[in-house]
């Protein structure tokens, strides 16, 4: 089984991808996490991607395709869930070619529909503990002490691309560059839309039906 999760930043892809991949025994590749790991170790790929990520722009296709292609060879045979890739038609076409060469293809492309107002509310309030990686949100999951982690007391950090000005740019970029990817999978008869503003449990129920 090979599944692609599509949706704007903050649509809930990561939360649902972790749950579904565990239930179905799929390898979960979250391109956002992969890129941030590259930035953290200051690799050549990470340094190339960092300025784009901080502005809320999409990382260039050649960087993303190269990163994903290297992982596909080792993971596609056991089932795979791609979270955050592809984000452009060029990336979708490159993915199709790589999978075809491996004798595979995308089975379902799940699109998480969430309003712009809700996306901004979700993204602009996020923060993370840099030590234990516990996630917080100003509205949905605030820390007991302002700006301090409940578990270890470390000062919480906000990602540069979650600041309000970057969030708005990320949504504009998504609308103009990623929305055409929906047509790519819709034409292939593989697109399933999910209301991402439902409860987590309700979305999980819809996803389970979509991939059976």
The CATH level-2 architecture of the domain at 2-115 and 178-211 is identified as 3-Layer(aba) Sandwich
State the shape.
globular
Unreliable spans: none
Q: In terms of structural class, how would the helical and strand content be classed? A: alpha/beta
Largest sheet: 5 strands, parallel
Please count the beta strands (DSSP E, at least 2 residues each): 7
Helix/strand order: EHEHHHEHEHEEHEH
- Write the CATH homologous superfamily of the domain at 2-115 and 178-211: P-loop containing nucleotide triphosphate hydrolases
Distance between the termini: 10 Å
Radius of gyration (CA) equals 17 Å
> In what order do the strands lie side by side in the largest sheet?
2-3-1-4-7
Q: Helicity, in percent? A: 40-55%
Stated plainly, the CATH topology of the domain at 2-115 and 178-211 is called Rossmann fold
Total number of helical segments? 8
- Measured by DSSP, the beta-strand proportion falls in 5-15%
> For this structure, what is the CATH class of the domain at 2-115 and 178-211?
Alpha Beta
Average pLDDT figure: 86
């Amino acid at each position: 089984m090979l599944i692609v999760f599509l949706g704007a930043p903050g649509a809930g892809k990561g939360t649902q991808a972790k749950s579904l991949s565990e239930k179905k025994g799929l390898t979960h590749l979250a391109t956002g996490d992969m890129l941030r790991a590259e930035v953290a170790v200051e690799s050549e790929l990470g340094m190339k991607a960092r300025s784009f990520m901080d502005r809320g722009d999409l990382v260039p296709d050649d960087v993303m395709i190269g990163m994903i292609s290297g992982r596909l060879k080792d993971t596609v045979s056991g089932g795979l869930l791609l979270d955050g890739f592809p984000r452009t038609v060029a990336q979708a076409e490159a993915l199709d070619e790589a999978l075809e060469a491996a004798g595979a293809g995308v089975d379902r492309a799940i699109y998480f529909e969430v309003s712009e107002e809700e996306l901004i509310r979700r993204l602009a309030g996020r923060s993370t503990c840099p030590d234990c990686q516990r996630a917080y949100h100003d509205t949905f999951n605030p820390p007991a002490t302002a700006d301090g982690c409940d578990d270890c007391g470390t000062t919480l950090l906000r990602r540069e691309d979650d600041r309000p000005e970057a969030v708005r740019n990320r949504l504009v970029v998504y609308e103009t560059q990623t929305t055409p990817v929906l047509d790519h999978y819709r034409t292939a008869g593989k697109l399933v839309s999910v209301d991402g503003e439902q409860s987590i449990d309700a979305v999980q129920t819809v996803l389970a039906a979509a991939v059976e």
